[in-house]
Write a sequence for this structure.
């Protein structure tokens, strides 16, 4: 691959990651309104433990 193509792919990857990371704020805000914070954190850490 050429250098310019790699730079374009890197930029697109960063933009995609920024969009995903930014959207989690909205999702977490909605989930916190529906369930207790402690339960949400337990699920979050359980998913992270399984992923590791």
């Amino acid at each position: 691959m050429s250098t310019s193509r790699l730079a374009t792919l890197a930029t697109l990857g960063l933009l995609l990651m920024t969009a995903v990371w930014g959207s989690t704020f909205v999702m977490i805000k909605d989930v916190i309104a529906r369930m207790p914070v402690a339960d949400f954190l337990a699920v979050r850490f359980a998913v992270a433990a399984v992923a590791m």
Q: What stands out?
A: The chain has two helices and no strands. The radius of gyration is 17 Å. The longest helix spans residues 3-34.
